[in-house]
Amino acid sequence: MTLPKALAAQPSQSRGRAFAEEDRAPRGPRDLFQRDRDRIVHSVAFRRLRHKTQVFVAPDGDHFRVRLTHSIEVAQIGRTMARALGLNEDLTEALCLAHDLGHPPFGHGGEEALDEALTDAGGFDHNGHTLRLVTCLENPYPGFDGLNLTWETLEGLAKHNGPVAKPKWAMAEANAAVDLELGSWPSLEAQVAAIADDIAYDNHDIDDGLRSGILNLDALVSEPFVARHWADIELRHPGLDRGKKLKALVRDGIGSMVGDVLEETRLRVVESGVETIDDIRNAGRSLVGFSARLEDEERSLKRHLYANLYDSDALRPIRIEAQRIVGDLAQFYRDHSSALPAGWQRAEGEEQRLRGIGDYLAGMTDRFAIARHQELVGPVNLPDRF
């Protein structure tokens, strides 16, 4: 069952773009949200996701996820749910593809290091930097900076995780240019994109964690969410080899989470009585989410992944070394700002100079950051395996 049409974002009713484009040559039959998606796919920042950490730093193994493959998988899950709910698939896909554009090298560890290094310049957060990229730093058009995305796409990128009470400078700056109503909830499309992200990394990190040998299946099966799916797989396929069972585990996990979200979202929408998109923004809660049972199971699974994968003995020293690389590079460029490429040097004052350093570092891929550190600072100590 799809939701009422009035709850879906309509490109014909968009609040538009910051810069008028009526004088541009025709670009075919695409609507506004389709153009947003395509601008994201063709951006430099999107291409750089190919060499940015998802779980493993600069992985040599072709089978491990990186930010790019993760974003594509999120988009597949998000678009599937948007279609089932009758929401705008193109806006959902655009938000899924762009949600991680602002990540610096080395994932959340790199983000923490960059935030600390830029404390006196307002800090750093990847959501705010995503907005900075699409409104300022990407520059494919002659008449303006940024990708000139629609208000609805910018709103979804800013608020896909919910209202933003205390935005850091990059998001505050973007919001000052275009009021994104940071205190309200976003569209259902943005809420779908957010939970598609959770579904993707919960299940795909299980896959990568088991493939790497860091996660232990026997310990993982103690988690209620995994236990009931594993028991069902063994019942259905008692003679199947372990490798295929693990693939089935990931596939079944995604499918059951998606089904749960669709059912729960329909219930919440009916119970809330929302009739318009403005009602959704003022609902006071997310209307897209897991059922109470699955929410508890998913939180427990996340705790297991943090303890046994992200903060494991195998990955913790790698994260610490990656953070050292980012911190060292930030300090080097603070001391030698003339070493920055010309396009990243800022002449508007100390704060802007430091933010230019942050912009440059955030755009680095894992491999580029490692190479610059080796060239400018000294050797790095990262294992070849991950």
- End-to-end separation in angstroms reads 44 Å
- H and E string: HHHHHHHHHHHHHHHHH
Question: Mind describing the biggest β-sheet?
Answer: none
Point out poorly predicted stretches: none
- The average pLDDT score comes to 94
Full CATH superfamily name of the largest domain: Hypothetical protein af1432
What does this entry look like structurally?
- With 386 residues, this protein is mainly α.
- The protein has 2 domains: 31-183 and 316-376, Hypothetical protein af1432; 188-310, no CATH class.
- 59% of the residues lie in helices and 0% in strands.
- The chain is built from 17 helices and no strands.
- The protein has helices at 32-41, 44-48, 67-85, 89-98, 107-117, 126-137, 151-159, 169-177, 188-212, 217-220, 224-236, 242-272, 277-281, 292-310, 316-335, 350-363, 366-376.
- The protein is globular and about 65 Å long.
- The termini are far apart.
- The model has no long low-confidence stretch (mean pLDDT 94).
Short description:
The protein has two domains: 214 residues, Hypothetical protein af1432, CATH 1.10.3210.10; 123 residues, no CATH class. The chain is 59% helix and 0% strand.
Characteristic key phrases:
mainly alpha; Hypothetical protein af1432; globular; Deoxyguanosinetriphosphate triphosphohydrolase-like protein; dGTPase; hydrolase; PHydrolase_assoc_dom; HD/PDEase_dom
